[in-house]
Write a structure and sequence with these properties.
homodimer, alpha+beta
Chain lengths: ~325, ~325
């Protein structure tokens, strides 16, 4: 069996944690703090030419660099509190910096976050943000809590960022310019589901943010939950239930599924909850002002399966999003 | 007055902290944790072609990426506990990864540090590490604690990394191959003064790690301490007292001072302490097994001055190390 590239990387950097207080997290690591809070920590990098076009709008970039990190905090149910910014710039360009900072602070200010440190270096444009959030001890949403019989939910709509990306590449076109603009806004200025994550504490049994595509990220939940439960779990997804924007719904059926199931860059939350908590899930969504859709169920038995309306399994592969392959 | 480039960047990203528990740090930010400890946090980026040659030895790189971050923890007197690794790679190269991981873990294992998360992306080679360390509440070494009359100390020797760098550039040559090798080891595999930083808690009044050159970094101490004391402080450095390795001592006098005062990449600690604690400083150095040298004094009145043996001020500029200018 040849190792996948990410598994190869894992081989070198994954080790069991030695300090109880600093356990290896999931979307975030959790550190102990006083007064019953845990500190959720995560970091994500954006690289020019890979995660964004070299001529990307600087204001959107400032927003997105923080948003993708906030999405990890959201997946843990944490309240954002602070961040570190490591910014690598090819040159000091005041116009770029002003716009980047504006986009960054507009989002940081929404959550009253402090920038507590960082590093500025010269080199190919990229940015790594480390975010800190607070969560009451023991209440963080983890990937590992799903149980057989739980419903699988997802917030918002799926596949819009992928539609925008494929349109940029000339491989897809949106039905109307307005629908393309809407998809581009999802790609460039994602809305991390921070309020929803917090509202789901005590309700969701597991959660993950959808950054690599629904199937890949739900796969992480199934895997982590199987390990935690000591038995093999799976998931069935009802293709007809997937929440699609008007733009994605207007695509050919094959593209609809590729975008929704393996799109990448969605920054929605995929989470599980016991069936009897469906009303509580709806209430949490109402509190957060974010629509949620029940799309399937966790089952005993392995793998994530996608079923069409007649209940038959869709057998084809939905290519996962891998930055080393794309 | 035209803003320097770093001041320009500061303009956009510096804001007063809004949460008491998450104050803006200095070498590190300090976060509250239970049981009387504070968490020191810092992040530093290394970029290929800027901080290291694109063909740099991967094992040394793994060491240095963590070492420069440990140096910030050392400057706060913190005990290292964990880190996040954001690694950007042009391709997945198993030989590189294995060697990089080996260098990284050899240093991390010295301090029983956990890797608690991170991100792996594809792009121009660079790495951002975020480190976490613990320090008893209120005992962190800050840049702002120096007082008039305090002695100024520095650990180890200064200027070796600069000698190695200038030799690589063909602008300097070391007296012997062995001295060049010793200088290169300082550039490629710096020893962060972690034990010394911890031993100096309760002894040093202020500390900083020497990464941009002694004058620049001591300047930060003077500036922060002036602000904290509400009066203008300065420092006098005795050029004849600067601790030099055999390699740097063999250079022409002008180069000796340029390397020692504005060298960059030293990763020594520069710290201040009341004169009556000189014995305690020596004891801390003995505990840590790192030589320290008294090189000057904090004074009332502005600026950092360098005095030659006859007591006259050396008036020429020692160019500071600025990644955007070099």
């Amino acid at each position: 069996v040849s190792l996948g590239e990410f598994e190869l990387i894992d081989t070198y950097f994954r080790r069991p944690a030695r300090h109880a207080a600093l356990g290896v997290g999931d979307d975030c690591a959790l550190l102990e703090t006083p007064s019953g809070l845990q500190l959720a920590v995560s970091c994500d990098t954006l690289v020019a030419g890979r995660h964004f076009a070299p001529d990307a709008d600087a204001r959107s970039l400032g927003h997105k660099a923080l948003a993708v990190n906030l999405s990890d905090l959201a997946a843990c149910g944490a309240r954002p509190s602070a961040f570190l910014l490591a910014l690598t710039l090819p040159r000091v360009d005041e116009v770029f910096l002003a716009a980047f900072a504006q986009g960054l602070w507009a989002l940081a200010d929404l959550y009253a976050m402090d920038l507590i440190g960082g590093d500025t270096t010269s080199g190919p444009l990229s940015m790594t943000i480390t975010v800190f959030g607070e969560v009451p001890r023991g209440q963080a949403l983890l990937r590992s809590g799903a149980r057989a019989g739980d419903d699988v939910w997802v917030s918002g709509t799926l596949g819009d960022a992928r539609l925008a990306l494929e349109a940029q590449r000339g491989r897809l076109s949106a039905a109307t310019p307005a629908l393309l603009d809407a998809a581009r806004a999802r790609l460039d200025r994602p809305s991390p589901r921070v309020a929803l994550g917090q509202a789901l504490r005590g309700v969701a049994s597991a959660a993950v943010d959808v950054s690599d595509g629904l199937l890949a990220d739900l796969g992480h939940v199934v895997e982590a939950s199987s390990r935690a439960a000591g038995l093999r779990l799976g998931a069935r997804i009802d293709a007809g239930a997937l929440p699609l924007s008007e733009g994605v719904a207007a695509l050919a059926p094959t593209w609809q599924l590729d975008c929704a199931l393996a799109g990448g860059d969605d920054y929605e939350l995929c989470f599980t909850a016991p069936a009897q908590l469906a009303t509580a899930v709806e209430a949490a969504a109402g509190t957060a002002g974010v629509p949620v859709t029940r799309i399937g169920r966790i089952e005993a038995g392995g793998g994530v399966q996608v079923l069409q309306a007649d209940g038959r399994r869709i057998e084809r592969e939905f290519g996962g999003f891998d930055h080393f392959l794309s």
